[in-house]
Amino acid sequence: xxxxxxIAVLAAALVWAFAVYNRLLRLRDRVNKAWRHLEPDQSNDxxxxxxxxxxxxxxxxxxxxxxxxxxxxxGFKPARPFQ
Length: 83
Description:
The protein has about 80 residues and is mostly helical. The chain has one domain (about 20-83). It is about 80% helix and about 0% strand. It is built from three helices and no strands. The chain has helices spanning about 1-40, 45-65, 65-75. The longest helix has about 35 residues, at about 1-40. The N and C termini lie far apart (about 55 Å).
């Protein structure tokens, strides 16, 4: 019975970590997409705002307790906002 419970807990933790990993991937993709829109015209204030908002959401997600562990293991790095 203890083995089944342990396997169930480990499986739940893996599913949870996979969900966090996918969320971080989606947020990083949003940052990259916003950068691709900003890169050709860096004087565009709307593109700067969108990029910085995406960076803020991504970096905030990296600071959370479950995501920080997944990010450390998976190699996610904080993004730099546009100055």
